[in-house]
Amino acid sequence: MIQIIKPIPQCLLVQFENKSDLSLCFCRVQEFHESKLANIKGVPASFADFIYAHMDSKGAITYFQEWEGYNFNDKVWRKWLPWERTKHEKDLIAIMEDELDIRAPFYVIGTLIGDNDTVNHELAHALWYLDSNYHKMARAILKTFKENDCFDYGRMLKALSNMGYHDDVLEDELQAYMSTGTIAELREIDFHEVVKPYVNRFRSNFKGALNEQQTV
Length: 216
Ligand SMILES: [Zn+2]
Known about the structure:
This protein has 11 helices and 4 strands. The chain has helices spanning about 20-35, 45-55, 65, 75-80, 85-100, 115-130, 130-150, 150-160, 170-180, 185-190, 195-215, and strands at about 1-10, 10-15, 70-75, 105-110.
């Protein structure tokens, strides 16, 4: 079963009952955008190449267990669109074409049904991309944080990098974690109490922008 929701304009949230369908719809476009593997990032890899690149020498693949949610924007999608698409990818594209104006900027999120923590995290990415006021404010908070507390800023980015995020998306990930993450999630990225004022500013920016977008 799939649930289709539009939480804010031009943002499509597709929720799945199980992780196998979720992963198979999103994994190739996601890793085309931000893989740490040079033979996958920016490369229109076949599904066989994708599997091979993520498999260890014993044949094990942990990739599909590692991620709770996926996201991509229209720019990534236009660059990616492979000539050979799987059934899962075709199904996702059909939903996008029904629900979105695919010639305009858009954002697509995939999660499991009921996983609200992940939805909020992905919505912070969607706002970063689609809402210029949100983006401007989040950038301003990041700048103040970096200038006033370079040590904590640096170690949180490092923690995100160690979790597998590509350098290109570290600032976006940091704002998404700080805007929506639970305390346990923030601890995973080396959160210390001293950073709390920035967390509060990110959260109020997130709530304000979401309210505004949802009343459009
Ligand atoms: Zn993220």
